[in-house]
Amino acid sequence: MKPESHVNVIVVGGGAAGLAAAAAVEQAGLSCQLLEAQARLGGRIRTVPLRSGGVFDEGAQMVNGDMHAVLGLAARAGLHLSPVPRTGIGLCLAGKQTLRSEDLISASELHDLLEDQVVRWDSPGEVLRALRLKLEWWNTPWESPGEAGRGLRFLVEKRTAPKESLAAALRALLLEAEEHAMAYSHFSEILGAAPEDIHAQAVRDIFARYASERDDLEFQIAGGMIGIVDQLASDLRHRPRLSTPVECIRATGDRVEVFAAAEVRTADHVIVAVPPPAARRITFEMDNSHELAALLASFAAGAMIKTVLVFDRAFWRLKGLSGVALFADTPGLAVVDGSSDGPFPPRLIAFLGGPLARQWAVLSQEARQDLLLSRLSHAFGEDVRSYGEIAEAVWVDHPWSGGGYNATVRVGGNPDAVCRLADWSGRVRFAGAEVDDRFWGYVEGAIHSGRSVAQQISGRAAVDVICETGSPRTA
Ligand SMILES: Cc1cc2nc3c(=O)[nH]c(=O)nc-3n(C[C@H](O)[C@H](O)[C@H](O)COP(=O)(O)OP(=O)(O)OC[C@H]3O[C@@H](n4cnc5c(N)ncnc54)[C@H](O)[C@@H]3O)c2cc1C
């Protein structure tokens, strides 16, 4: 006899992945209960109002035109997509030098070069493709012996085994000093960690699977990303339980017990839609829990501080600047123009990821913002101090997500941890931005991963029902 609180599926975590999973489970005709630790839904999507009008997305904010799950939800909710402003010159700050980003290696070229490090040059097509990439990146190698020598060294060293850390992999690209510093800063920002600590192979796999050729910062959702969470939540038939942190998940034979808020619930299946650093705080009691613990321990939580500065005019545009800046002298710091096309005042958004975010997080808010303004003034001039409003979100050692943007596989971790967690089968399965195979680390990936796991379970549940009764029915 199953207890009254028994459902087909319990979903742990009410971020984008958990909400998408729960909605898909219900749509498949199964009963579902979502348990969320915090007193709100959304996880790393959190939108707050600004005094000067409009909102600040403290977590996720931007999407691109290939992120169909988010765009579909936005369309259903009637949300307006505001293009991210991009006209003007982007800057790279390298010590005393201020360079134009278009004169340096781009983020997508860098990602391609890293991915290419492990490509076997076995076919003429591969060789041609790889050489074209190098020629696009190296300026006129035929005109400079230094450049030609760099090219030759690269070709020779390419045959050696890939290094374990991302920092070593970056060094093996033999970039010019400024470009290397830019690359280091870029990866510290997007991974929220020092490249020395991140597993190169795991990062290459993420880039190889990334399902878009477009810039990831194309649009933002007017009214904030929370509109996507609201739309996902409105699809649920059964109300999520908030302030219910799950402490233990025990798989026993034909069911799973979930211990949360001094209650035990049971389900046929559990979807754990919490990021790996937060999942480490849950006790898993099942056959292969040692293997699972090693996989979860493979991830290093990111560290990120996101700050918005609101101005009465977009002074950087008057100087021909796009508002985009990457700081090689402050590893992990990047800025974009986050203004919307609505009636609200223009704004710059600063992202500081990695070890410096950890260092700044322990300072007072005032000291942190002083440091930020002094860096931003190098790029944009003293006008940057004339902001009307400033607000920040610190995603460092966050109890329910680990941090931001995401958690990445650490040096010494299992380089296949992302796939292994995504493929974890049985009655307990994993979903989330960190385990998605198409849009790793994005809201799109979280939704896609949640829906995929729900589909696997509903397929499996249908098989269970056929086995039990001999005829198909919905549970
Ligand atoms: C500053 C910042 C900026 C970002 N910018 C973008 C962007 O512009 N575009 C983009 O696509 N992505 C962005 N991201 C990444 C994106 O926010 C995440 O990848 C995505 O939201 C993760 O969704 P998730 O459901 O996998 O995890 P989460 O959103 O972390 O959800 C997990 C949920 O599980 C809950 N939980 C944890 N432990 C337990 C437990 N024991 N019991 C019950 N519940 C638990 C948490 O409270 C949380 O609600 C950004 C992230 C940050 C931090």
Describe the protein's architecture and organization.
The chain has three domains: 7-43 and 226-300 and 412-469, FAD/NAD(P)-binding domain (3-Layer(bba) Sandwich), CATH 3.50.50.60; 47-87 and 217-225 and 302-402, Polyamine Oxidase, Chain A, domain 2; 102-209, no CATH class. The chain is globular and about 65 Å long. Helix 1 runs parallel beside helix 16 (443-469), helix 2 (68-77) packs across helix 9 (226-234) and helix 3 runs antiparallel to helix 4 (124-137). It is an alpha+beta fold and 475 residues long. 36% of the residues lie in helices and 22% in strands. The strands form five sheets. An eight-stranded mixed β-sheet has the order 8-7-16-17-18-15-19-20, sandwiched between helices. The model is unreliable at 465-475 (pLDDT under 50). Strand 10 and strand 11 form a beta hairpin. Bound molecules: flavin-adenine dinucleotide. Flavin-adenine dinucleotide binds next to helix 1, strand 15 and helix 16.
Pick out its properties.
single chain, 475 residues, alpha+beta, FAD/NAD(P)-binding domain, Polyamine Oxidase, Chain A, domain 2, 3 domains, eight-stranded mixed β-sheet, seven-stranded mixed β-sheet, 16 helices, 22 strands, 36% helix, globular, binds flavin-adenine dinucleotide
